[in-house]
Design brief:
The chain is of the alpha/beta class. The chain has eleven helices and seven strands. It has helices at residues 3-9, 21-32, 49-61, 77-80, 86-104, 125-131, 137-140, 145-155, 180-195, 219-224, 226-233; strands at residues 12-16, 36-43, 65-70, 110-111, 202-206, 209-213, 239-242. The longest helix has 19 residues, at 86-104.
Length: 248
Amino acid sequence: MTLEDFFAAHKKTAVAFSGGIDSAYLVYAAKKYGADLTAYFVKTAFQPQSELDDAIEFAAEVNAELRIIEVDIISYEDILKNPADRCYHCKKKIFSAVKKAASADGYSVILDGTNASDDIADRPGIRALNELCVISPLRECGITKDEIRALSRNAGVKIWDKPSYACLATRIPTGTAITADMLKNTERTEKELAAIGFSDFRIRYIDGAARIQVRDEQMEKLFKMRGEIIDRLKPYYKAILLDLGGRQ
């Protein structure tokens, strides 16, 4: 099955849109193949403002209807405790919110951007999608991450090479209770590094310290800018650490 076949059979769909390239390409394809589409972005404390900004810009670029839903995700104790299956609880809340809003708008089919490269056996959130009957067309059509990037680039989608992004909660080790301050500090400090030219990196929280992970090609730059990086991050963490293994 191709995406054209899929949207021929599903002409009225809602897409859970994260602002990343997978769901962005899904929105693009739905528009291309004439689907009646609304994209839904769920804003929580786990998403930085930059992801919402990207979603708004992309939706305008492809002339897609975008609805923004706010969910107070840190009000849920089962999520703040940060258990091993936190992603399941979080996805259940987020996609339930999408499903409720989409249903009110007249949509019964909910899509997400899970693709054929995603290891669904290692993603607790997939269980929530299955329980809520969310469809993943990219996975069902066998489209991999690399193919999504290539197709997006050929289609002129501006964010075709946007690095994959995991929510801010993933920076906090499983079992460490999540606080609003942890999330805000992560967002602020990752924004600080992005402002001085770093990309596709992570700042992990470890017992009050920051552990920086960058790609190998940016390691030398990090060493050269060590002093500035410490100055930018030290207001938020008691220690600044570097993962010499880099970001894989």
